[in-house]
Amino acid sequence: MHIPVLQKEVIEYLSPKPNENFIDCTIDGGGHTAAILEKTSPKGRVLGIDADPEMLKNLEYRISNTEFKKRLVLVNDNFANLKEIVKKVNLKSIQGILFDLGMSSWHLEESGRGFSFLRKEPLDMRYNANNPLNAEKLLNYWSESEIERVLREYGEERFSRQIAREIVAVRKIKPIKNNLQLVEILKRAIPVRFHHQKLHFATQTFQAIRIAVNDELNNLKKALPQALEILKPKGKLIVISFHSLEDRIVKNFLKESSIKILTKKPVVPTQKEIIINHRSRSAKLRAAEKV
Length: 291
Fold this sequence. Notes:
Blueprint: H1 7-14, E1 21-24, H2 31-39, E2 46-50, H3 53-63, E3 72-76, H4 82-89, E4 94-100, H5 105-109, H6 135-141, H7 144-155, H8 160-173, H9 179-189, H10 203-214, H11 216-230, E5 231-241, H12 244-256, E6 259-261, H13 271-276, E7 284-290
Parallel strand pairs: 1-2, 1-4, 2-3, 4-5
Antiparallel strand pairs: 5-7, 6-7
């Protein structure tokens, strides 16, 4: 089941009121959006964007018999095209914009695209099948130095050089086709003493490849200035990030923009929320108001 992260805090900072319009740039399972729509009845609208058409299909089915259907506009696109999307759907007077940059549980557990390292799946890792790059192509065709850079920059992986070397050695013998092959490569490249840490030894590599395949950090850099431009004065911008690279981009953007920062330090989940939803543990929320 989809559990929205920091939902209470999102609603507190967005402060939605009847008939106001909002954008959820990463609508995912629709948890945050449902809470916003409840507060903005009878005429408030939410534009929900998701890069993955499957996510939207699942959500459309779930809301088909609810009163939210009329007030929710769903668009399958990347939030990097935010201004263009808003223009297309003609949504005006936007009071708040939310980015929840967390990965969906559905992608890890049900998509079958190799996001998880716990069961055998093809190495895809794309949110949208129209993306010409997938994880298999990256691992089998990118140079050793490019793979090393991806692991070091996007995964902050200390063994990036050893892993890249091992990937190239293995693919000379046979192509790397599934995620469990990749886990075996990581087992050989990462010293044994790091195999049983709190964080699974494959986490950072899988994160790095996923970020590179979907160009996640560049898309975020493109979207934030557009969000600020689209917001009406006093409109709120909320971003929930899940690793230091995203958080750094958001923090620097807020610092460099003429915007009122509402969170001096990022808001993190309570211990109670982490117990209920383990995946929320690394979430950081930053909020700002357009001047």
